Amino acid sequence: MEDNFQSAYQEEQERLNTALAEIDRQLATLKSTPVYTGNDYTEQILEASREQRRGNLAKLKQEPYFGRLDFEENGGGERKALYIGKIGVDHEQVSDRPLVIDWRAPVASLFYSFTGGKEPASYESPEGIVEGLVYLKRNVVIRKRILERVADTFDRESDGPAVSDEFLVYRLGENKDNRLRDIVSTIQEEQDRIIRAAKNTALIIQGVAGSGKTTVALHRLAFLLYQYKEQVAAERMIIFAPNRMFLDYISDVLPELGVGNIQQSTFADWAAEMLGLELTQGDAMETLSRWFEAPGGMPEITEQTPGRFKGSTVLMGIIEEAVRRLESSSVPEGDFIPWEGAVLPRRTILRWHNEEYAPYPPAKRKERVMARIHRWIEMELKKSPSAAALKDRKKKGVQREKAYGAKWPKYDPLTIYKQIFRAVKTPADWPAEAPEAIPAAVLKETRSQLKKGAVLEEDLPPLLYIHYLLNGEEGAQKFDHIVIDEAQDFSPFQIAVLDLYVRGHSFTILGDLSQGIHAYKGVHDWSEMQSLFAPEHTSYHALTRSYRSTMEIIDFANGILSAGVHSDLLAVPVFRSGSPVRLIEYGESREADIRSALADLSGRDYRTVAVLTRTLVDAERLYEGLSAHFDDIHLIDGGITEYQGGLSVLPLYLSKGLEFDAAIVADADLDAYGETAWDAKLLYVGCTRALHELWLLHNGRLPDYLREAAKGGETAKGWPAVHSAAKAE
Q: Is pLDDT above 50 for 725?
């Protein structure tokens, strides 16, 4: 066995030396070629190609590939060793196979889909299904041109057992820094199916915590750009993430995959820019404060909760009716008379509006009609009998044209939205009362907020829809693909509006209902989103395997879900064992114990350690005390845009999407968390942030679901023995 390993390692070292020499040679040739700066279009195209190759080779020279697949195609008669990397590159001389195959290429899909066995394997190529035999599947780790590891996950000619998870566990055991990394070398079969799914489909992905949802979505963008290069463009793709800090956290993945120029935003930022609104951070934090900082826990949520109602498609119908009313009565009463003796009959204006320009949306229709009136005025002016009459008529015409235009409805989304909720005066032909479909509580709260000039995030989808109905697609970019992360916190209305701005229902919608802590605005079941699309335009996928945390942490988190939420959306952990989950009761001083726990975990070989509190107020107080004892410690309060790694203190509800080597959940007791399903989900989110180590500190009064979760054999009570001894000294 040892001899086989040495032989494999030597073989791969020799191949690496050859590959690096070829890459260095090609890069040197390209660097020695003068950069073209002239105006010849053909030369500009060639230079752009050379520059792209320079960049690709510069990346490859450090880590040229990560996998090898020996494959013999049926009828091919030859077994070929295929090396797979993040970026493909050919030999400088003509060859029957590339030097490195791009991981997105059809044949590379075998590296992810083949999990062993003696049966033939197949992949789908542009020419059709290709079948053959896999002889070897090998993972290699190359860092800074040094071959660090060789691991065979399948060898047809070996009697040894397959070790398909060995390499995965090795990579998962590595500590994290302050950025999400690509998983191109460890993509699993179920993830690969999602990544390579057809473009014009709304993929809805339910993924347990740590299942790689976000990373899979980012890799899917890279795949779509490769597979549909003639149909899609990076600048016409967008990722919607929960907050700006999360965007910073994921910002390195696409560049690592050689992909740039994809738009990245929060929904609120994008919508506000589309509408020309300015939203303040205070408005967003006020909403979070209302739901997460309120004494006694989260207020009751019903279908009449403002965020739930305003996120429903019921409001779409109300908006459509309001815009229709404005449109039908938009042409002012009476004929248009620019000066005495000139009359443009209203029936003519109505014909223009209702017939000739009927295909245009209301705002554009008004523009066309007013432009037509202006041309009519110019024609009438030519009939003036004298220069004095012309001057007088021109002056009156300008004034009356302007006055006539002012009589039209104000096609402004915010104005119409305020009219719907009766926060401003409504048009004369509108009913005096607001639509009966708007619940009284929603009407009262929204009217009050709009009168104060506040626009909340939950108001943005309705405002965008009004904008779309008024203006159509003009001035708005039509996306080739949209990724929505943490989609359980999106409303059906948001998805329905975004579908107006994307071609072919091309979505990747991913989230986890078990992490639905923003239930006051998000979906409670994926059917709320699936129902927005025709069955042939959507597909549902479930990722149940968690790659983030140890078995001990996942089992404990599953216990919380089972006992506290009664959910069956449980994670299946990868076989990676670690320290037991610790439940530690406070001693004489809560602050001293939290400080001691942080000192213990931060003193180990961990790059990121977080203290998770119940509220932002708790985090601020704790940070103030801890910052006197720890230099490299950061407060994450919802206002920062960059995750810095190291030691962090943050409210648990702001931790979603992040991960830490070790996490300390402060106050995991009944004083901070109740017995509701929402409280259990909140703690589930906190517990699943930890990769390697999870400690929960409490006052002894645990919620029942934590007591149930702690009954498993993978938990421990009290401080570690070494820590206790240190404290005793």
A: no
Distance from C-alpha of 422 to C-alpha of 442, rounded to nearest angstrom: 12
Annotated binding site for ATP: 207-214
Number of Cβ within 10 Å of residue 294's Cβ equals: 11
Output phi, psi for 3, to 5 deg. Answer: -65, -40
3 state SS of 237: strand
pLDDT at 159: 65
- pLDDT tens track for 39-53: 989 989 898 889 888
Q: Residue 170's pLDDT is what?
A: 60
Crossing angle, helix 551-560 and helix 677-687, to 10 degrees?
170
pLDDT at 389 over 70: yes
Give the tokens for residue 377: 């005025």
Q: From CA 721, how far away is CA 591, in angstroms rounded?
A: 21
Which residues define the annotated binding site? 207-214
Strand stretches in 249-404, DSSP E? 263-265, 336-339, 342-344
Determine the Cα–Cα distance for residues 708 and 599; give it in Å rounded to an integer.
29
**For strand 202-207 and strand 507-511, is the pairing parallel, antiparallel, or unpaired?**
parallel
Q: How far apart (Å, rounded) are the C-alpha atoms in residues 644 and 651?
A: 16
Structural domains of the chain, ranges and CATH numbers in brackets: 2-164 (no CATH), 192-293+473-545 (3.40.50.300), 331-406 (no CATH), 551-728 (3.40.50.300)
Model pTM? 0.88
